[in-house]
Amino acid sequence: MIQECPHPLDFDSTNKTHLDFIISAANLKAVIYGLPPHRDPHLVKILVVSVEVPTFVPQSGVRIAGTDAEAQAANQGQTDISLLYFRLLSSALCIACNLLKYYIN
User: Fold this and answer.
1) What are the φ/ψ torsions at residue 13 (nearest 5 degrees)?
2) What is this structure's pTM?
3) Which positions of the chain have pLDDT values less than 50?
């Protein structure tokens, strides 16, 4: 299977899918800390537009595999993809937690 080059998404507070992701991640974090979930998309939208996220800048010199075989060869001895997934999810939850702090305060 041919791999596509990853690209960052621009968050759009008017996109229902983007907003639903933030609400879901914030609610997961809230439940972890014993806080009640919050589902008001209008309030969350107001909060998220005030958060400044730095622009993604890819590292130079990083090679992205074009096929599964290249990816497997490159990943020998590298970090397991599931660990990277959990790191990404953790980062998303941290962002959601920061949004939740705005809601609480």
Assistant:
1) -65, -15
2) 0.50
3) none
